[in-house]
Write a structure and sequence with these properties.
This protein has 177 residues and is of the alpha/beta class. It is built from 6 helices and 8 strands, in the order E-E-H-H-E-H-H-E-H-E-E-H-E-E. The strands form 2 sheets. It has a 6-stranded mixed beta sheet with strand order 4-3-5-6-8-7, sandwiched between helices. This is N-6 adenine-specific DNA methyltransferase 2.
């Protein structure tokens, strides 16, 4: 995402056009959180000058705000699995399963599609009470960056099973404990 000015992010198109749907228990990340998580997911993505490097392949589980905030070129090699057809990202199970060897998987660990087999990088957000589950299933540990989800009444933590510099700093939107 390109900065709008000194220390500000440009408005997020997905956030400005897509309302949360309580029927699907949808709560969008803040613009700053989306920016940090997209950077975390695309940290090894090829640049314009690095055409020989394969594109990132990522499967996004119920995280349309992240999927739709990826650069268009990166999005072409990714998949979004979401129950809400309004987010225009639902994909057939067979397409999703092709992404089982994805570079990153983002979503809730309670999804039956999440696995950490085959050296898959896992990046997810969930409540702190799921720390042991994230460790057991994905070898993922809590990161310093906590996501801001403005309409959610409890705080999530961010987990990754790989070193991820974009998640090394605290989120300025979240008060320190």
């Amino acid at each position: 995402m390109a900065p709008a000015g000194e220390g500000q992010l440009a408005a997020n198109r997905f956030l400005s056009k897509t309302e949360e749907n309580a029927d699907f228990n949808q709560y969008w990340y803040s613009n700053l959180t989306i920016d940090a998580l997209v950077k975390a997911c695309t940290v090894d993505a090829p640049t314009e000058d690095d055409a020989a490097k394969p594109p990132i392949r990522a499967a996004f589980l119920s995280t349309p705000s992240l999927y739709h905030s990826l650069p268009v070129k990166a999005r072409k090699s990714c998949a979004l699995l979401d129950l809400d057809p309004e987010v225009k990202g639902s994909c057939p199970e067979e397409k999703f399963l092709r992404y089982a060897a994805a570079v990153a998987v983002l979503g809730d660990p309670s999804s039956p599609y999440c696995t950490a087999e085959g050296g898959v990088r896992v990046l997810g957000t969930t409540v702190a009470e799921n720390a042991n589950l994230m460790k057991r299933l994905f070898s993922a540990t809590s990161q310093k960056f906590k996501p801001s989800i403005p309409h959610l009444v409890y705080q999530y933590d961010t987990y990754a099973n790989y070193p991820c510099q974009p998640l090394d700093a605290a989120n300025p939107e979240i008060p320190e404990d």
